[in-house]
Amino acid sequence: MENETISKNFIENIIDKDLAEGVYDTVHTRFPPEPNGYLHIGHAKSILLNYGLAQEYNGKFNMRFDDTNPTKEKTEFVESIKEDIHWLGADWEDRLFFASDYFDQMYEAAVKLIKKGKAFVCDLTADEIRQYRGTLTEPGKESPYRNRSVEENLQLFEEMKEGKYADGEKVLRAKIDMASPNMNMRDPVIYRVAHMTHHNTGDKWCIYPMYDFAHPIEDAIEGITHSICTLEFEDHRPLYDWVVKELEYPHPPKQIEFAKLYLTNVVTGKRYIKKLVEEGIVDGWDDPRLVSIAALRRRGFTPESIKMFVDLCGVSKANSSVDYAMLEYCIREDLKLKRPRMMAVLDPIKLVIDNYPEGEIEYLDAPNNMENESLGSRKIPFGKELYIERDDFMIDPPKKYKRLFLGTEVRLMNAYFVTCTGFEADDDGTVRVIHCTYDPATKGGNAPDGRKVKGTIHWVEASQAGQATVRLYENIVDEEKGVYNKEDGSLNLNPNSLTTVTAYVEPELMKAKGYDSFQFVRNGFFCADIHDSKEGQPVFNRIVSLKSSFKLPKA
């Protein structure tokens, strides 16, 4: 039990205390995204944390769209978010909600504050409100409209609802304290006029609640106990608490903040991704070079790998950055025993075995995963002409080079020993064909006389090889320059973020369908693209290379 307590994060400790003291008798969490873009890897941490806490304490988890801002929200984003959360394994059961479902209750809540003398209609412009707010060192100035009567405020607020005022002409503000050291408590705006069609409520409303007012009401209506959010909302917590207290909810929720998940050298800002999409630099919000959840799924990441990554990052109060290499480590760890290891040659050169019988094809046994026998084996064709990787042959190799060069013998994986006897090259020195002889006694890759070879290379048989498009990805930003250009705030894009090659692959790989993933021997893990793969014509995205210098930090 002692170890269990030590390993708990600070949120679990708060929940344990609340349950022990009878503050709450259950745990009810939620994930409340605004549907104004696709979710990214940082949101995955919040989803899995909120859902995980509900599971751990045998409680409930709600899915709620915080759709209080119709200017940026779309049904496309609603659907993509639902798909992402399902894919990550978070189950909201029958508890799918929209903030807009509560607009009537929010309006009544605002009326209640007006009647209590805790809210007023203000005619100041947005710029004037900003000027009146004061600074971190100087108190704000009260609005000249702050002391309107309850009756006048009720009438003006109703007229706002009826559409009598233009956007920005009037706002409803909470009446709190213009001298508060917390800027969020200086009579914040809680309702604004916005004549816009809402994706869920259509044209019913022309006034919309502000997030800081709406969010605590949503939580209270749904019976949320612990409102888990990221650290930037810490300064907003006094306003959150003020709203639920003044509206006299019987079991007010408790807001708890945790540190966001920051990944080094990645683009997560919605406006930057939107720009990349609109300018055609990427092919959508799910382009595999991005770290939206949809992009990671399309690239070939698994829910298990993302959960492992989130668990390794931990939950804390201190902001910090995590190296993208740790995410890559997690997908390697997840896939290495699950996926078959197949042969694909990404930069092909022909190899001819001069002493192999002309026109003969034999089928050799190959294990699907040498570390996991349960994945079984398959038959692969072998013949006189093969393709190997261009860098598996050198005319003038450096010391310790263990692959093919004149006179050397290597193992063709799962096949035979071959010895290089010559090559054909163009006038410019580019090698076109390599010639070898094979030792028929070494079938399966071992010599009866016990001789050893230093190198093993992979290959595909030429006559039956499939041709597949393979996409090799690098970071979309130039890591040496950093994500953002310091002079103009633009992105430092990497011109080599996508390289497309035509690879020769063993026949079995041509059957791959979208989201099928494999290890390509010696080349990395790859996934068939869900959009661009057609039957018999797969397009493979490289999920991650096989090797990395990354090591897990010691606990």
UniProtKB/TrEMBL annotation:
ATP binds at residues 34-36, 40-46, 230. The keyword Nucleus does not apply. L-glutamine binds at residues 66, 211. Keywords: Aminoacyl-tRNA synthetase, ATP-binding, Cytoplasm, Ligase, Nucleotide-binding, Protein biosynthesis. Its EC number is 6.1.1.18. It is an enzyme of class 6 (ligase). Residues 27-336 form the Glutamyl/glutaminyl-tRNA synthetase class Ib catalytic domain. InterPro entries: aa-tRNA-synth_I_CS (IPR001412), Gln-tRNA-synth (IPR004514), Gln/Glu-tRNA_Ligase (IPR050132), Gln_tRNA_ligase_bac (IPR022861), Glu/Gln-tRNA-synth (IPR000924), Glu/Gln-tRNA-synth_Ib_cat-dom (IPR020058), Glu/Gln-tRNA-synth_Ib_codon-bd (IPR020059), Glu_tRNA_lig_a-bdl (IPR020061). A motif ('HIGH' region) lies at residues 33-43. It catalyses: tRNA(Gln) + L-glutamine + ATP = L-glutaminyl-tRNA(Gln) + AMP + diphosphate. One of its GO terms (molecular function) is glutamine-tRNA ligase activity. Residues 456-529 form the tRNA synthetases class I (E and Q) anti-codon binding domain. It comes from the Bacteria. Residues 340-439 form the Glutamyl/glutaminyl-tRNA synthetase class Ib anti-codon binding domain. Its main location: cytoplasm. Monomer. PANTHER family: GLUTAMATE--TRNA LIGASE, GLUTAMINE-TRNA LIGASE. Belongs to the class-I aminoacyl-tRNA synthetase family. This is Glutamine--tRNA ligase. The gene is glnS.
